Amino acid sequence: MKKNTGSFFAAVFLLLLLCGCGPELIALNETHNGQIIDCSKGDIVEIRLPGNPTTGYVWQQSRRPVNDVVVLKQEKFTEKDSTRQMVGVPGTFFFRYEITGRGKEGISLHHKRPWDANSTTGKFEILLNVD
What we know:
With 131 residues, the chain is mainly β. It is built from one helix and eight strands.
């Protein structure tokens, strides 16, 4: 019985080729502030910013995206691992966006007290360039 190794290798090659074509997770932090980020439709952009909400200051969107290029899918805060279980432990704010269209769109986050419009202590702004 003769084995068809050519078909097998063609199938493996096609599978490897397709594995590199899926959505990409683009992880960003405070070092990316002010940058233009190139991405593609379907990608996920995750922004991680340090903070401590027990101080009254949180990271929040300063404006919603105006185009159908990006959608906020998840926003959360996670405390740093602490074996002492102390109150007021700092951590990381996570913002996860899905790229849903093509074009340009800005993301603007401010570090502020939600009840005080004049309390901004930091900004994180990027421009997404979606091909």
